[in-house]
Prior knowledge:
Layout: E1 4-11, H1 18-30, E2 35-40, H2 55-66, E3 72-75, H3 77-80, H4 87-97, E4 101-108, H5 109-113, H6 121-125, E5 129-133, H7 140-151, E6 155-157, H8 167-175, H9 186-194, H10 205-212, H11 215-234, H12 239-248, H13 257-266, H14 273-277, H15 282-294, H16 300-307, H17 318-329, H18 338-345, H19 349-366, H20 373-386
Parallel strand pairs: 1-2, 1-4, 2-3, 4-5, 5-6
Helix pairs in contact: 2-9, 11-12, 11-17, 12-16, 12-17, 15-16, 16-17, 17-18, 17-19, 18-19, 19-20
This protein binds fe (ii) ion (2 copies).
Amino acid sequence: MENKRIGVMGGTFNPIHKGHLSVAEAAMKQFKLDKILFVTGGNPPHKKNLNILPAFARHKMVCLAVEDNENFVPCDYEVTKKTYSYSLETMKYFKKTYKDTAFFFIVGADSFHDLPTWHRPRALLELCTLLVYDRKGYDMKKDHDILKKEYYCHVDFIDSEEINISSSFIREEIKNGKDITDYVPEKVNEYIKRNNLYQPKDKDLKREIRKVLNKERYIHSLGVSNTAVKMAKIYNINTSKAYIAGLLHDCAKNLSKSKALQKCSDYDVELDDFERSNRALIHAKLGERVAAAEYGITDESILLAIKWHTLGRPGMTTLEKIIYVADVIEPSREFDGIESLRELAFEDLDKAVIECTKATIAYNEKKGKPVHPNAYELIKDLENKQQ
Ligand SMILES: [Fe+2]
Ligand SMILES: [Fe+2]
């Protein structure tokens, strides 16, 4: 017996908008649904660099958009999965999780039209009823007449007004400096504004980073970037990744304390106790998220190099080690012993990481500052490898 009726509204939500919400409300009423799950899609593996915000930012906007409606529930199943999840897998997961439940999969007339291109549509349609809403330029009833012959699908039509807004239209409006208040929930609008999302970016990353760093930090970042490129050549890794990671590694460094904390909440940055009490450290983990959301960086190795550039971690990649060391030895840095460290950086990368870490520990101890446990683990990890 299927006692419960749950709607499933999946999407990239890049960003979620009022059209999604009004369709959900109409479906809820018309089909007497108990609740609707808003399932934010993960980043599709083959669609990189298409102006799709990272999943953590898109999902956060979904959470903000539905937080005042107890029947609308944000679902991060596809976002937290390591691999890309098709609707079929997600629906199977829901079937297992919610017993005695009938599922209603809400889709636009545009994706309904493309049903034959979905991943195993027949298997999916055995698990749920489709609820289709009208989209400009599509004739959903005509499509149904054609599709039902081959797919035997249970389809109902949502009586909502034709939805004329789309996420791509909204992104375009933002790029053109237009106001999007009419199209997205207020909290989503504020989120987009305060984080400067979907803004057009200068192709020259140097010019972009110059806008958010003070002069000293900008010169330091150029130094890290140049040093990292030289090291990348020595250690045979991709120099353009080293260039980008070096340039962006401190992209969250010059934010005010309140802005940094707001962004940590906006981008779901998880901080450990040590980082919470040593605010100067949060710019690394936050920097990773800023680079993804605001600079469109999708390359995982660059993002990780930014994330671990201050603390390091056991099992660092070559790029992570290079940024970690370049941050300490770049030309504008000065301290006792830096010259020998600069030489070591081009001779033995692991030893250079160990020595940079020891220098940081010594510096902190001298100043009476606590040392993060990662530092000792990192040294132990690399010393074991050297033996
Ligand atoms: Fe830094
Ligand atoms: Fe730095």
